[in-house]
Automatic annotation (TrEMBL):
Keywords: Mitochondrion, Ribonucleoprotein, Ribosomal protein. This is 37S ribosomal protein S25, mitochondrial. It is found in: Mitochondrion. Belongs to the mitochondrion-specific ribosomal protein mS23 family. It comes from Paraphaeosphaeria minitans. The lineage of its organism: Eukaryota, Fungi, Dikarya, Ascomycota, Pezizomycotina.
Amino acid sequence: MGRYDFRPLRVRQTAKALFDSKRNAGLPQWYKIIGDIPPSETLARPLQRAPTPKKARKPSRMFQPLPIAYPEDKLRSDFFGDHPWELARPRIIVEDGGNDAKHYDWSKIVQPGKQLDGESVVQRQMWLIKHRAMSKPMAYDVARREFYFHRHREDIRRRVASEEALHCGAYFGKGPLEIGMELEDNVWESWKAWAREQIDDEEAARAQMFSGVPSDSTNLASIEFDASLEEVQAEPSVLGRNFQA
């Protein structure tokens, strides 16, 4: 094989040569078709990859995208870092155009049609920084104080509505605190049962140690003790005889 591959063009010639030399009994069925429509050949050069140098320079960062940052990002990280449980509250993430915050009047933190959440504090803080020329900590304190006030009012409304509904005969089921207390009580009772079993096992083992069947070693020890006791009792008579002599 050289630079180009001409074997597809010689398939018909090879089949004819095999038939003429009587190595094949007949011509293949595609013999006439290949004569009418000869196969094509790829004359394009194969793709050659450039060798990678050993000491290659690091690619330039000129064409890398720049990091996208917004001034609200730092405010969000500060607020949710101080109030991590706000992330556990359910939120409505459906938006109309992706930039709905600009359609509200953030001269007040409570907006019609929008629930009060951490984003309200962030947008209120941004408005105070731009329009009231407040510093970042001062604007954060003002927005946070307003947030606490309205969130406290929401809790009072919710509690009053719950009490009114209970007074009228409604039943809400168990709350998260009651469910948590039940789970804690179940774990406590299971631990008490386990501890009682452990104490009973230890008491049974201790009683078995003192009320066991005497073994041969204990019998031998008792015999030796009796023999030594008899020797001690016999020593005074021997001493008395020696003294009289």
